[in-house]
Amino acid sequence: MAILKHRIKRVVTVLINPEFGTMTDFDKLLATAHAKGLKIMMDVVVNHSSNQNEWFKQSASSRDNPHADDYIWRDPVDGHAPNNWGAFFGGSAWEYVANRQQYYLHSFAVEQPDLNWENPKLRRAIYDMMNFWVNKGVDGFRLDVINLISKPISFADGPQLAGEPYAPIGPMIANGPRLNEFLQEMNDQVFAGHHLITVGETPEATVADAKQFAGLQRHELNMVFEFEHMGLDGNAAPELGKWNDQPVQLVDLKRSLTKWQNGLHGTAWNSLYWNNHDQPRIVSRFGDERPAYRQRSAKMLATLLHFLQGTPYVYQGEELGMTNAHFTALDDYRDLESLNAYHHFVETEHRVAATTMLSYLAHISRDNARTPMQWDSSLNAGFTVGTPWLAVNPNYAKINARAAQTTPGSIFSYYQRLIQLRHRLPIITTGDYQLRLPDDPAVYAYTRHRGDQTLLVICNFTAETQTRQFTALPTNAKLLISNYEDDHGNTLRAYEAKVYQY
Questions:
Q1: What Å distances lie between residue 413 and 117, 247, 315, 404, CA to CA?
Q2: Residue 378 lies in a domain
Q3: How far apart are CA 380 and CA 182, in angstroms?
Q4: More exposed terminus of the chain, fewer Cβ within 10 Å: N or C?
Q5: Predicted confidence (pLDDT) per residue in 322-340, tens digit
Q6: Is 492 among the domain residues?
Q7: Of residues 69, 128, 144, 432, which has the active-site annotation?
Q8: Rounded to an integer, what distance in angstroms lies between the CA atom of residue 482 and that of residue 499?
Q9: 426: domain range?
C-alpha cells in the first residue's frame, strides 16, 4: 500500500461560503458546542467537487496545468462518451470539455465532477483539508459516498436495463479496487491519534463490505451507512428504480435489519437510521401520518431503531414526527434527482403518467426531508423571515419543536426516554440480537441478550389490533417503555410498541 509518508507541496485554502457565514462564526459554533458538552461532525464530500471549484476550472482549461489530473478525464471513443455509464441523477455520466477535447466523469450532477483519487497530489490535498478541520477541533466526519472514490481501471461498459439508454453507474464504481487502501491511508494521515468518530456513506455496500470498511481491527472507518433497508420499497419495474408510492413489506424489512444486526455483531459496528437528507420522512414512509396514528407510529419506529445494536442517528424533525410535504406540482420541487426523473420518465420516455410520477415524488422524493425545520408556529415555522428555498410543510402550526417541548407525552419526550435508556442499559450496546416471528407481516419482534438479561421488543406495524403470544415471557417481566399508558398483554393496539426487561 502506497501510504503518503512525505508531504507533496501544495497550497490548500479552506474557506466558509459567505452565504453561510464566516470562519469566525464557525469557531464560535464549535466553542459553544464544546462548552455545552456537544460534539460537531463535519459532512465531508471527497468523491467530487463543484465545477466552480478553482481546481476544476484549471483542470478543465488544459491538459498540462498543475491541476490537470485532479479529475477523471478520458478521450472520446468513436466520437462519443468513453462508456455507457449513466449518472445517478440521470443522463450520461460524462461531459465533454472543448478546451481539453476530453470528457470528465460526474457520477452525480454535471456540476459535480469526480475527483481523481489515483493522483497522490490530489489525495494529499484532501488530507490537508481534513486535517485543517481536525486541528480546528471538530470531533468527526461523515464521509459522503466514500466507497465510490476508487474507480475501476478499465472503465468498461456496464449492463443496461431494458429500454434505458445508459448503464447504472452505482454497481460499476462502488467498492473499487483501491478503496481499502485509500481508507487506510486516510486513517493513517488524518484519523490516527485523534478521538474522532467516522462514518462512511456507502451505497451498494454489503455486510461483507462493511466488515472491511468498519471492521474493529481494520483501521479504516468506525461505521458505515448502508442502504439496503432504504431500497426495499423500490419499484417492481427495475428501470424505475426508487420511484414508487407503495409501502415496504415488513417481512423484507425484518430480513434486512436482521442480516445487518447479526452480520456485524462482534466484528464491526452498525449505523442505525430511518431518516436523512436523502430519504423521505419515515413516519410517512414506514409509519402512518394520519392524525390518529402519527404519534403512535413515530414512537413505534423510534422504539424499534433505538433498541438495535449500533449508533442511532436522529435526523432533524424526526424527533417531532415531521411528515412528508405532499407537494402537488412539479414546480414545488427543487431536488435535481426528482426533477430529472420526472422529465425522463414522463416527458422523454413516456413510461409514467404525470399524475403517477407526482405521486411517486410525494412519497419518495428527497425534498420531503428538506423542507424547513419546524421550530414553532410563527411565520415559516420560525425558520426564516425571508423566502425559504422550499415551502414549509403546512402542518408546522401543530408539528413543531416548541409544541413538542411543552406537550406531555410528545414524540420528542419519548426520544429523550429512549436515549436515556441507551445510556443506562449496557445490554443495548453489547447484547446479541435474535429475531422473533420472522414471517409475521404485521408485527416486528426481537430480543436482545446479555448474560442473564433479556429485552423483548414488540412493534405493531399496523393500524389494526393484533394478538400475539410470547410464551417465553416470564411472569416477572418488567415493562420498560411503551407508547401506550397501559399494557394489554397479548393484545397489541394500533402501532403499539413495548419493551419488556427480564
A1: 45, 28, 16, 8
A2: no
A3: 44
A4: N
A5: 999 999 999 999 999 999 9
A6: yes
A7: 144
A8: 6
A9: 418-501
